[in-house]
Amino acid sequence: PSPVPTGLETPVASFSGRRTIPRDRGGGRLGTDRRHRRLTNATKPPHYCEGLAALRLGAGFFRPSSRPARDLGVLLCRSLAARGSVSVLDLMAGCGIRSLRYGLEGCAQAVWANDADSDRLSLLQGNLAALDGLVAWRASARTAQQLLAWHALRRKRHELVDLDAFGSPTDLLPAALEAVCLGGVLYLTSSDARSATGHDRPAAIRRFGAAARVHPASWELALRLQLGVVAQTAWSQGRGMRPVFSFSEGRTFRSAVRVERRPAPGEESQLGLIALCHRCGDRSEEHTSELQSQ
C-alpha cells in the first residue's frame, strides 16, 4: 500500500452578499467593521455540509481535511451493501458525521454511533435525527471497551466496524475484530505517527512488535506495520484477514481489512523484516517463515 492524494474539503456553508455600510450625513461610516463582522457572522447557518450530510459540529475535535477518509468509508459501505444488508458500528463517532454519511450515502440499513463523551450525546442524537424514517439508528455514550464487551457478551456483530482512534488502537483490536462478522470489514485509523514511522522505537516495539526505523518510505512502512498487527491479532483468533485498501497523508494511517473465516494457506509468509542501508540505500527483505540461524 502507498499514500494516495487527498481530495478537496467542503467548507462550512455560509451566506455571502455585497457588503454595504450606511453613512451618516457627514459622509462617515456608521458603526465599525467589528460590528459589521458580528452581524454578518450571525447570518451564517450553524452547520457543516459534506456529501449529503448537514450537521452541527459542536465544540469537540473535528478535522475537515479528513474528508477523503470519510469518502472512502462511504464507498466501502456501498460496496458491502451491494452484496447484502449492512449494519455499521461507529465506535468513536464524535459529532456523528461518518455515521450520518453511512446512512445517507453508504446504503447502510442500520447505524450505531457511539462516543465516550456523554456531554456530546445530545449533539450526536440531533445530527442523526436526519436518518429518521430512512435508516435504523442508535446513539450511545460508552467507552469503546465497554461497548465492545457488550457486543462480545451478546455475540452481536456488524458488517462494518469503524474504529477511528485517537492515538494507537492496538489495545482495541482483539475486541474490535470480534465485533466484525465473517466477510465484514474493519475500517481502522491510527493517529500515532511517531512510533509507526520510527521516531519512537520503544513505542513501536510495544505496539507493533517491530523496531521501526526512519525510512524514505516511512508512511508505507507504518501502514504495513498496522496491517501486520491486525493480521497477528486475527490469526490468534483463528481468523484470516485480507487488506482492502490502506492510505495515509502523513498524520493518520488508515486501513480497511476484510475478516475471513480462516487464514489463507501461506498467509503468515507475508509477515517479514525489512533492512535498509542508510549509506547506499540498498534494501533487503526476509520473510519470517524463512529466517535461518547463521
Explain this structure to me?
With 294 residues, this protein is of the alpha/beta class. Helices cover 30% and strands 22% of the residues. It contains nine helices and eleven strands. The protein has helices spanning 33-42, 67-81, 97-104, 121-128, 144-154, 173-178, 193-196, 201-208, 218-236; strands at 48-50, 53-55, 87-90, 110-114, 136-140, 158-164, 180-190, 240-248, 253-260, 272-276, 283-287. Strand 10 and strand 11 (283-287) form a beta hairpin. The longest helix is centred in the C-terminal third of the chain and has 19 residues, at 218-236. Mean pLDDT is 82; it is low at 1-44.
Report a brief summary of the structure.
With 294 residues, the chain is an alpha/beta fold. The protein contains nine helices and eleven strands.
Indicate the topology.
Blueprint: H1 33-42, E1 48-50, E2 53-55, H2 67-81, E3 87-90, H3 97-104, E4 110-114, H4 121-128, E5 136-140, H5 144-154, E6 158-164, H6 173-178, E7 180-190, H7 193-196, H8 201-208, H9 218-236, E8 240-248, E9 253-260, E10 272-276, E11 283-287
- What structural class do helix, strand and pairing data support? alpha/beta
Count of distinct strands: 11
Low-pLDDT windows of residues: 1-44
Percent of residues in beta strands = 15-25%
Please state how the strands of the largest beta sheet are arranged side by side.
Answer: 5-4-3-6-7-9-8
Global shape: globular
Report the C-alpha radius of gyration, rounded. 23 Å
Question: How would you state the average pLDDT, rounded?
Answer: 82
N-end to C-end Cα span: 32 Å
Largest sheet composition: 7 strands, mixed
Q: Report the total helices.
A: 9
The helix/strand order is HEEHEHEHEHEHEHHHEEEE
- The proportion of residues forming helix, as a percent range, comes to 25-40%
